[in-house]
Structure formats: structure tokens, C-alpha cells
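Q: Structure for this?
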Amino acid sequence: SQTIHQWPATLVQPVGSPLSLECTVEGTSNPNLYWYRQAAGRGLQLLFYSVGIGQISSEVPQNLSASRPQDRQFILSSKKLLLSDSGFYLCAWALGTGPLDGYTFGSGTRLTVV
Amino acid sequence: TQLLEQSPQFLSIQEGENLTVYCNSSSVFSSLQWYRQEPGEGPVLLVTVVTGGEVKKLKRLTFQFGDARKDSSLHITAAQPGDTGLYLCAGVGSGGSNYKLTFGKGTLLTVNP
């Protein structure tokens, strides 16, 4: 069966510090991978998605970046965090891009920038 | 940009009551998905509706996709405290944007015992 791992679960970082969040998927090959951010009362905002190794599409201009060094690994990074980067970060995968392909989400990382 | 509007934003009801939440857009979607999210967790897929007018039932939950594939509704019968959570609808684009879902802001449901 497929599983998705996301860590850490919670993180408190000072403004200006770097960030690295990791997400890995097991039990499938060549998944589509996604990073979302969820702020209170604002739903899910798509940050990045990837359809293959080294292929990253950015949805929102910001000081975050993403990388996919391996087929089932997706990393969200920042060189210098801002207060506005606080939020709940969710990684998700989907096997395909058809109308029936739902997303499977990780359990999220609660990031607080202080 | 395809937007999904969900209503109501917040809903607090007593155990045993029925409720309906709505998901509306001016855009056509290939499909609409409904997720439920509990605090501190990621959303979990409940159902996908694909055909205009389609109705799907999942125990006490009934999902409907509008005829024009622009809107959807979720009806819960005899709500229970375990139904508490954030209900999110998400749409798959109808052309050239199948790689990503567009999410609504969600309806936060609280079912009081």
C-alpha cells in the first residue's frame, strides 16, 4: 500500500533562518507531488507541484523553493524565513492527472516563524 | 483562475440534525472532489463526482454534482459528533490544468452532542 511521510510535525523557526521540509512517498512510482500551505481561514494554497524528477512548477511567487531530487522525494526550502511564512504545510501525491485521481495528503507540518 | 466558493463558512449544529453545505463556481470542472480534514491532520478524500447531475452516497453523506459541472453539494443526514471537521471541495480543471486541484476555503462543521 502507498504511504506518505512528512516531517517534522511541528517547527518553530526565527525570522531569517533557513527551512527544509521533506516529504517522501512509498509504494508507488512516478507520482505527481504537491506542496500546499494552509493558513487559518484561507483554505489550501498550492505552492509547487512536480510531475517528475527535477520538474518543478511554482504557483505563487515567494521566498520558498521546491526540489525533487528523487522520484518519491519532495523538499520545500527557504533561505530566509519571513513571518508571513507561518502556516500549516501539506505535502500530497496523486498517481495521475485524470478527473478521478484524488490526492493523498501527509499529516502536515505546523510552521511558526517567530 | 478557477475559484470555488464554499458556504457556509461555519456551521454548528446538534447531533441528529441534517445539514447541507455548498460548493459553487463560475467555472466548469472535469470533476469535483470532497475532502474532510480534522485538526492537525491532512485532508482525506471522501468522494469524487465526475458526471453532471451525478449523485453519490457514502453512508449518511450524499454528494451531488450540478448538471453544468460548476457546483456541488454535500448533505449529511442525522449528523454525529464524529462528523465534525473541515469539509473542503476541490475541482479538477476542465482543460489544460489537470495537474492540480483548486480548493475552496472549506466549511467548518461542529456537531455538538
